[in-house]
Amino acid sequence: MDELWKQSAIDLLDEAYVSPEYEHTWFKDNDPDSSLIPSFRSLTAEDAERKPVVGRNAVAGHAVHLATSLEGAAIAMRGGPYAVDWEKSWEFPRPLTQAAWEEICDRLERAYLDVRGIVAANTDWSNPIYSKSVQALLAHAAYHLGSIRQIAADRLPRA
């Protein structure tokens, strides 16, 4: 059961973050660019920095927040403390240059690959720091994927 659970977790992390080719998807569009990292990378820094409406977070904030969350989870999965400054996790440099935006996207991809590697190497899913963390990370990714895809559809110009 552990191997099946682990492979399912990896498949869903991949679906959320990198959009591999699937015959069927579980919670997102099947479009090759509909996962988080390709969706972020399809935007310019100017689009990523733009707030969709007053009081809501820009797409760049979502990217930094997700990277911070994954980094915190990776530390905890390695036995360290899970200590994330959630308020700070939304901060990004302003004005947002294209180079800074690309570094945010790279940071998110590195954090995703790190967590994916930890999940792939884990052999004991009875420890809630692994099982519940992965479930929470999946729900968190799905929430933010929906948020940023809606922002892109509603507020940002189509390429």
Automatic annotation (TrEMBL):
<feature type="domain" description="DinB-like">
    <location>
        <begin position="40"/>
        <end position="146"/>
    </location>
</feature>
<protein>
    <recommendedName>
        <fullName>DinB-like domain-containing protein</fullName>
    </recommendedName>
</protein>
<dbReference type="InterPro" id="IPR024775">
    <property type="entry name" value="DinB-like"/>
</dbReference>
<dbReference type="InterPro" id="IPR034660">
    <property type="entry name" value="DinB/YfiT-like"/>
</dbReference>
<dbReference type="Pfam" id="PF12867">
    <property type="entry name" value="DinB_2"/>
</dbReference>
